[in-house]
Amino acid sequence: MELPNSYWDKLASRYPRYTDVSIQKDASFIFGVAMDFGVEFENKTILDIGCGTGTLAIPLASKASKITALDLSQPMLDIFSHDAKILNLDDKIDIITSSWDDFALNQTYDISIASMTPAVSSIKHFDKFIYSTSGYGIFVGWGDYKNNDIVDILIAKHNASKSKTFGQTKKFVEHLLSKNIHHTLSYFETFWSDDYGFDDAFEYCISHLERFGIKANEAIIKDTLNAVRQNDKITFTTNAQKGVVVFKKLFV
């Protein structure tokens, strides 16, 4: 199930862009797995589902003939559109404000991408994703874990657990296997750090606890943040496992 627009809208200003070093490293790995499997991006039509700020679409735009990129968060897409215009890539990219549920598939694409998006997380959405490509599909999802040092402390202090299960990549692979679709799978570890002032850190914690379905205790959050604050800066460090699945459509 897709998260509400408000969740992603809150994250938009702090969400990584194509220039982020960690994102560039992840993108290089993802594209490498795809090319090793036989994917060629040159002069191809590409669909990017849940494109966010364009972290994959922007580096691909110079190669592709056309990219159709959709997301439900307008603030995310505003950032994407700004960066694409600065790079003179806006004529190569159609940016669409839409959920995956509401997006009308009026054509198939040479390559379809669903990277780190809850929009493609159910069997119904998997099938629509597979149907959307006439050639290759690239799926990137969480592996077995995602750990954030401060958020994990807060979850424990709220006497809660991570109700969201990871392993979306495994679920997608199992679906491909059930359909006899040729694919490859590679896992990799990624990590990143973010520095925030107190107010932004507070909002960051609220939004992440909400994502896990946890009602935030503001006093607990403030006490925790004050304990780790250094020179009015609070650093969040995340390490996670991601999986890259590339499949080839052998049927229409």
Could you describe the 3D structure shown?
- With 252 residues, this protein is an alpha/beta fold.
- It has a single domain, classed as Rossmann fold, CATH 3.40.50.
- It is built from 9 helices and 7 strands; from the N terminus they run ααβαβαββαβααβααβ.
- The protein has helices at 5-11, 21-36, 57-61, 74-86, 123-131, 149-157, 168-178, 198-211, 218-228; strands at 45-49, 66-71, 93-97, 109-115, 133-148, 183-196, 234-248.
- A 7-stranded mixed β-sheet has the order 3-2-1-4-5-7-6, sandwiched between helices.
- Helix 6 crosses helix 9 and helix 8 packs across helix 9 (218-228).
- It is globular, with a radius of gyration of 19 Å.
- 33% of the residues are buried.
Write the layout of secondary structure elements.
Layout: H1 5-11, H2 21-36, E1 45-49, H3 57-61, E2 66-71, H4 74-86, E3 93-97, E4 109-115, H5 123-131, E5 133-148, H6 149-157, H7 168-178, E6 183-196, H8 198-211, H9 218-228, E7 234-248
Parallel strand pairs: 1-2, 1-4, 2-3, 4-5
Antiparallel strand pairs: 5-7, 6-7
Helix pairs in contact: 6-9, 8-9
